[in-house]
Amino acid sequence: MSIAHTLLGLLESGPRHGYDLKRTFDEKFGQDRPLHYGQVYSTMSRLLKNGLVQVDGVESEGGPERKRYAITDAGITDVSQWLAQPEKPEPYLQSTLYTKVVLALLTDRSAAGLLDTQRSAHLRMMRILTDRKRQGDLADQLICDHALFHLEADLRWLELTAARLDQLAKVVAP
Amino acid sequence: MIPEASLLAAHDLRKTYGSTPALDGASFSVHPGEVVAVMGPSGSGKSTLLHCLAGIITPDSGTITYAGRELSAMPDAERSALRRSDFGFVFQFGQLVPELTCLENVALPLRLDGVKRKAAERTAREWMERLEVDGLGAQRPGEVSGGQGQRVAVARALAGSPKVIFADEPTGALDSLNGERVMELLTQAARTTNAAVVLVTHEARVAAYSDRDVTVRDGRARDLEHSA
Amino acid sequence: MNLLDEKRPAPPSHPSPSARTTTALRDLGLGIRFAAAGGREGWTRTLLTAIGVGLGVTLLLLASSIPHMLDARSARSAARSVSDTSGIQPPASGTTVLRLDTSSDYRGQEIDGYLMRAEGANPVLPPGVGRFPAPGEMVVSPALRELLDSPDGELLRERLPYEITGTIDDAGLRAPNDLLYYAGSDTLTRDQGARRVSDYGRAGKSEPLQPVLVVLLVMVCVVLLIPVGIFIATAVRFGGDRRDRRLAALRLVGVDIRSTRRIAAGEALFGSLLGLLAGAGFFLIARQFADLVEIRGIMAFPGDLVPAPWLAALVVVAVPLTAVLVTLGAMRSVVIEPLGVVRRGRERGRRLWWRLPVPLLGLGVLGLTGRVTETEPVEPYPIALGAVLVLVGLALLLPWLVEACVNRLRGGPVPWQLATRRLQLDSGAASRAVSGVTVAVAGAIALQMLFAATSADFERATGLDTSKAQFEASSVNITGENAAAAVAKLRATSGVEAVTGSVTVDASRPGDYGSDDVRPSTTLTIGTCDTLRELARIGACADGDTFVAHPTDQESAKWVDKTARKGGSVQVGETSGTAPLLWTLPADSPTVQVRPDELGGEHEGIMATPGAMGTVTVRGATFQALIRVDETVPDVAEYVRNTAARLDPGMELFAWEEIEQDRQYADIRTGLMVGATLVLLVIAASMLVSQLEQLRERRRLLSALAAFGTRRATLGWSVLWQTAVPVTLGLTVAVAGGLGLGWTLTWMISKSVADWWVFWPMLGAGGTLIMLVTLVSLPPLWRLMRQDGLRTE
Q: How many domains does chain C have?
């Protein structure tokens, strides 16, 4: 899962402080693994260096200095590209895919399209595995089947999510 | 809109049952020797699309072209004749005539198309061999297992050397091993005879036997490879 | 597994008998609840069964009403008839009536009629008549009034020149369609053939049925009722497959096999009880229309249709019992598992060994009974038993035969293959229906052969040559003087080609003859010279002359001379009377040769002109005429009858061309035809229902076949073959069995088979049945072949 892309995507709805970003991230995606503030700081400085964000302003009201970050045009393009790019079909993708779907919903991009693209990528992978299975020996077949069943599980998740997009949108972006 | 060199193509099909739209501007195409999976949730209109493509029902509007002929404009008798000669069918269940033997069931489409009994049964026997059910010739469908029955059905769909095979959830009633074997035999046979296959399924692992997949949602077919 | 379940002796808990009864009752009740409250589907099934059973029950109730109907008819018939001891007649009194039978036929219908003259002030009245008809007036039955008022009755009105002044009540009629009149006269005398009547209803007991008729009646009932039974059994099975699926669902929640049977029995019981009610309802409705419906001449008053109590009770008990037994029997071939219904294939074919003995036993019984001659009394019951065993045996043989034949069928075109394979898999329903056809048709053929044999027998016995003459008239009121005029009038009737007529009376030699001797006798013909010249080669003739006419045959001529002794006395008229009338044949009577008449007949014996008889009143002389008509003239028979009625209302006219039948035979034959028609309809209905049910069951398959591009015609033909194969087999068995049985029965009553081709109409009816069932099945078949069946959702 790309934390940088996720933070960038969160910035699309408006400039935020580093601490604010961490809190929003934890709230929406970090149930199991909350971000360290240091992670946010280092990610932001990398993005700043790549010109994907810029410092919108600095505040220091009776405390340490706090930078407010804003996304640049290059940053928006980068988020779009990331969302449009299907993940390489592999097991345990849900967290990334979930993040992508939520971000798409938050930024008014097509979550359904994203899911369809992902479904296609999965199916393509399954087709390749099926082909390999047909030509391979029993060991190949068993290995391929294992992967196929996992991919199928993901695909089912994709389908289920696609069917519940409206519900999810209401929860994520009320 | 209709891709060049396609064997069977549909453009902007619409079909309404009562007030429920089953197809709402669906387009589709398949090439000779190509296996296309039609996927989508229940009630999305995938079976309706298949029935339209096969000329079993006529769409309310839109065009279907098969080998350069306008299918949607043909009278019923001509469409029936086409189904006998050029198409093959596999359904989920309930398609074998229970009182005929398996061999007679496989020979049925040939005989309906006017082939003499002996010749039809000879061809049928060959196909049953290819589908590994050659021992069941004299059995009745009620006496064979689901997987065997479905293989008999596939043999029947192939026996008439069809140009297009329509398979509607062909593995729906089978376990995964049997289902995959049936798919394996079906697609293999179709590829060797250069027949196109339109495969309606909601199972990804079945769809994985296809060359390409089309998703039907809310009565619209999306061909992702082509639009991407 | 299920077999083991069934055989397990008892559940381990050993419930007490009363608890078991409670369970059984609970199961039955559950079944009834399913039948009554099973949603729309359950209701449809129950309703179908009820209607089917109801129709069967209606037929059974109608059949059980026949005894009462016949009793009521014959009681009313007896009530209006008079004592038939012909010799002794009561003395004249204030209540006696002179009555002349003037019955005749009109366009094939019998018109009963009497001319009556009151001899006193208070004449007795026939039943149903309120006032004695005055001279020139008549009272008529409602059916006759209707006929006379209609344009159809125009010719009959000429024959009955009386004014209608009243209607005969139901009490005086056998049936609503009785054509009857009583006309008044003031000139009628006993010499005109009238009989003195002092009261009505003195016919005594009506004749018991002849034994042969008993045999026929028993067979008619069997022939008609077996198919009804089969129909009821079929009706109970309506919708059985859905019921089995529902029972499977019950098995899933823990109901055991025995309980499912009881539940099914409960459902069948409820359906058949509703059927009984429906049948009673249909019967009550149908009986209201009894006097509006005329089936092949049979009609009844609604009040006559009362089921015999013991027969009705039998129906009430037997129908639900049959329903339950049939259901339990049908469930034997089905295993109801919690997860679905398994149809137990017939591992072994139907067996022949217990079927074949039944018809053979029947033939054995018939064979042992042997031939019956007309003179010996007939023991009807063995014959009836034998015939019934043969018919039931045919019905039992048929399922075996259908299976055996169908299993040998191979190949053929697709529709044929579909049909034969279908029959191979399950020929039960088809054979059941066809068994009904077989019994009906075989019985009908056998009975028709019997009728044909008996009626042909009559024709041979009369030896009448209808190419010479078609009518024979006889009257006691036309005398020698006006015989010629009568002949002329008949001759002048339109359509009449030739008439010969004469007045004759028996003449015999007086004297005492022992019982071993034969009294010589001949005929005395009385007529004018012109009439006599027609009959014999007479030269000079004047009134008062007499002749002896010799036939061409010498032996016969000698026999004539034994009575006709010139100058000797001759006894004229009846020989048994108290005072024989003696008349002397003048010695100068010339002997002449007879002249064959226009119709080729010879009139031998004594011939006398009216003057030669002097003042002697000849009693028992009758006018007899033979009439030849041009049969192409429409209604020629009615013109002849009208002329005859004008000459003498009491004149009797026989039509030779019509097959004379015993009235009772005609009734049975009529009943048989009515019944056979109904039975074929009933069978068509039951075949149709099972056909439609089968089609509905296979809607998915039909849609799939349609998807392959199967032509409608292909499936249409397969439906046709599916009906045609068993029906054809059944008809073959029926024709063979019927002809065999008919031949045997004909042989047994010492007659010979007159008509081997009686089965043609039955074959026609069978063909019609096949077409009917197929044609009605086609629209639903085509509807089911549409794509709807493919939609799984």
A: 4
| Co-location of C743 and C636 in the same domain | no
| Inter-chain CB proximity B112 and C791 less than 8 Å | no
Instruction: Kindly state whether residues C771 and C676 are assigned to the same domain.
Output: yes
Whether C122 and C102 share a structural domain: yes
- Distance of alpha carbon C585 from alpha carbon C595, whole angstroms: 21
Confidence of residue B221 (pLDDT cuts 50, 70, 90): confident
Contact (CB<8Å) B228/A155: no
Co-location of C696 and C792 in the same domain: yes
pLDDT of C216 strictly over 90: no
User: Which residues in chain C have Cβ-Cβ distances shorter than 8 Å to B46?
Assistant: none
Q: Hey, what CATH topology would domain A1-82 get?
A: Arc Repressor Mutant, subunit A (1.10.10)
Question: Bigger pLDDT: B192 or C700?
Answer: B192
- Other Cβ atoms less than 10 A from the Cβ of A37: the count is 12
- Say if the Cβ atoms of C708 and B57 lie within 8 Å: no
Range of the domain at C24: 1-63+211-340
Within a domain: residue C203?
no
pLDDT in tens, C741-783: 888 878 877 777 767 776 777 778 778 888 888 898 888 888 8
Q: What is the pLDDT of residues B39-49, one digit of tens each?
A: 888 778 888 89
Give the closest-approach CA distance of B97 to chain C in angstroms.
7
Listed range (A107-121, C498-512, C608-622) with the worst mean pLDDT = C608-622
pLDDT band at C500; cut points 50, 70, 90: confident
Tell me whether residue B43 is in a domain: yes
From C172, C197, C222, the end of a domain falls on C197
Q: Over the stretch B110-136, which tens digit does the pLDDT of each residue have?
A: 988 888 889 999 999 999 998 889 888
Cα gap C280→C285, rounded to integer Å: 9
- 3-class SS of residue C53: helix
Parent domain of B129: 8-219
Among B205, B209, B224, select the one facing A120 at the smallest CB separation. B224
**pLDDT reading at C615 higher than 80:** no
- Among the partner-chain residues C414, C421, C793, the one whose CB lies closest to the CB of B112 is C414
**Does C555 or C427 have the greater pLDDT score?**
C555
- Domain containing residue B171: CATH number: 3.40.50.300
Contact C707 B82 (CB under 8 A): no
pLDDT score for C58: 86
Q: Which residue has the tokens 């209006």?
A: C80
Which residues of chain A neighbour B207 with C-beta distances below 8 Å?
A: 123, 126
Q: Which residue has the tokens 């019509």?
A: C658
Residues C380-434 have pLDDT tens digits of 677 778 887 888 888 888 888 888 888 888 778 888 888 888 888 777 777 777 7
The answer to the question of residue C565 being in a domain is yes
C424 domain residue, yes or no: yes
Q: Are strands C591-593 and C521-526 parallel, antiparallel or unpaired?
A: unpaired
Give the start-to-end residue ranges of the domains of chain A: 1-82, 86-174
- Cβ–Cβ of B83/C707 closer than 8 Å? yes
Per the domain annotation, does C99 fall within a domain? yes
> Are C630 and C682 in the same domain?
no
Q: Which residues contact C129 (CB under 8 A, 6 or more apart)?
A: C139, C166, C168, C169, C172, C182
User: Based on the number of CB atoms within 10 Å of its own CB, is B34 exposed (0-12), middle (13-18) or buried (19 or more)?
Assistant: buried
Nearest residue of chain B to residue C427 (CA atoms): B99
Q: Which residues of C touch B43 (CB under 8 A)?
A: 793
- The interface pTM score, or ipTM, of the predicted complex is 0.84
For the CA atoms of chain A, what is the radius of gyration? 19
User: If you measure CA to CA, which chain B residue comes closest to A147?
Assistant: B205
Distance from CA of A50 to the nearest CA of B (A): 30
- Same domain for C175 and C218, yes or no, is no
Residue C630 shares a structural domain with residue C668: no
Domain count of the fold of chain B? 1
Query: Per-residue DSSP letters for C569-622?
Result: EEEES-SSSSS-EEEEPPTTPPEEEB---TTS----EEEE-GGGGTTPPPTT-E
